[in-house]
Amino acid sequence: MALHFLATLALLALDASAAVTVRKTGRAPTGYEVDFSYTNTTASRVLIGGGLQLFTDEFHTTLTSSGGFDPRDYRPGDFYVGSFGGPRDRAWPYEMVRSSGDDGLWTFTTPLPSGIYSFAYLVDCDNPFACSIDTGQLVIDPDLPPYRNVQGDQVASSFQVPYDAQFQGTPTIDLNFDYALSAPAGSRGTIKPVNYTSPGSIHPAPDVHEFSVYLPAEYGSVAGKKYPLLYLSHGAGGNGDDWENLGRMSAIMDNLIRGGLLDPTVVVMPSFYNLDSSLPKFIYGNMSNFAPIPDPAAIRENYQKYLFPWVQDHYDVCDEPGCRGFAGLSWGGRLTYEMYINATDYFGYFGLFSPATSAPLLDNGTLAANPALADRGVFVTYGLYDFVFDAGRELQGALDGLGIEYLSRVTPFGSHYWNTWQDALWWFGQKVLWKPLPVTRR
Ligand SMILES: *[C@@H]1O[C@H](CO)[C@@H](O)[C@H](O)[C@H]1NC(C)=O
Ligand SMILES: *[C@@H]1O[C@H](CO)[C@@H](O)[C@H](O)[C@H]1NC(C)=O
Ligand SMILES: *[C@@H]1O[C@H](CO)[C@@H](O)[C@H](O)[C@H]1NC(C)=O
Ligand SMILES: *[C@@H]1O[C@H](CO)[C@@H](O)[C@H](O)[C@H]1NC(C)=O
Ligand SMILES: *[C@@H]1O[C@H](CO)[C@@H](O)[C@H](O)[C@H]1NC(C)=O
After folding, report:
1. What is the CATH classification number for the domain harbouring 134?
2. Keyword Signal on this protein (predicted)?
3. pTM > 0.85: yes or no
4. pLDDT per residue over 7-66, tens digit each?
5. How far is the CA of 85 from the centre of ligand 3 (A)?
6. Which atom of ligand 2 is nearest to the CA of 210?
7. Both 245 and 297 in a single domain?
């Protein structure tokens, strides 16, 4: 734990003017505090928004409302489920304070419990739900830039706060997210954006498309070794940088691998927008651009034609379904379903994280025509407070009705958000990936 925390600090310390500092305090309410600082001489009001949320607990959460607790009032068992825009959610507690001098220094300190947080500064913006990068009201922290390929692909910076059992422990729910803290040096894989040739692509350049790749620490050091390969998809309104920037997937993978819970695995995180010009261009940072979501079958066909062969040619990855998987969150879960149904033979493992699936789902005719559907390693997971809860149940019902075995998990603190999907990856890696089939056998 101490090692983890030092590693986190070291990362932040790389930048002398680090704008965000996570500090161990050894006192209530959470055992940790986070200091933000931002310089702007002309601003008259600065809020911290873009993903920093209010808290709730198991007794104050419904599908449309949450406790709306300020982190300064944190109690063990509190977690966040996103903002519903209700009256309490509008009481925005993350308001920066301007120093008395004329240096334009804005600061804010808050306790926070274990977990992933993303943020951007909201400058001269009174409605945190309506400020955008286009109007200059949403400012990315210049000292903690997001992980991204090209500028505009990500609009929030992120950090992880460690767990402290003394202040955050609760007997009813495990809210320790330290599996997403940086692993010690030597156990860290590499993560980077990659451009590949994809005829027809309209971003980041004509006929050039992008993905992010995670290579395990061991990669390249064992002659001739071929690694299992996981494709991991973002959801609607996202891109292939999301999993690292908002979900710290490389830290989760490092910790799975170093703990002996998962074989070293290569992970490719593709981007499903802008594959061709049939839909308007979608750029993450452009909030005025609500591009339609691409059709899963079209994404699948494009990946099969350009992405999958390119990855196979450029990395030391194995080339059989038993060591290849596809997973994704939300619309990426819908895409995973498409791969499960229509690219069944290419993959042995499927992770449907908060899947945005809907009827008609597979039926006995689908199974009769494609019996392999019943011998794959399938994981269906979503949050207890997830707005696709019903969709997840329905998908499970369809699989149950056909006698198809799979593993499932309802994340007890989960909404349709990154802490749920981090949890999904953590358990998918331990319980499903590359495990002997059927994965339901203990
Ligand atoms: C400073 O605030 C102004 C609004 O007063 C904003 O337009 C500008 O982008 C901000 N500058 C920086 C460097 O964040
Ligand atoms: C990918 O291509 C874009 C557009 O040419 C470029 O800005 C970006 O730096 C490239 N990324 C990588 C990782 O090569
Ligand atoms: C943002 O999206 C809008 C609507 O699609 C478009 O008109 C505008 O040119 C885009 N801006 C940038 C910087 O891409
Ligand atoms: C995908 O599979 C379903 C179910 O077998 C089938 O109805 C559909 O036509 C397939 N889609 C494509 C594009 O092949
Ligand atoms: C699927 O189930 C329906 C209703 O139980 C049945 O009528 C039909 O013959 C079945 N089809 C196949 C291909 O097994």
Report:
1. 2.60.40.10
2. yes
3. yes
4. 333 333 333 344 899 999 999 999 999 999 999 999 999 999 878 888 999 999 987 888
5. 26
6. 1
7. yes
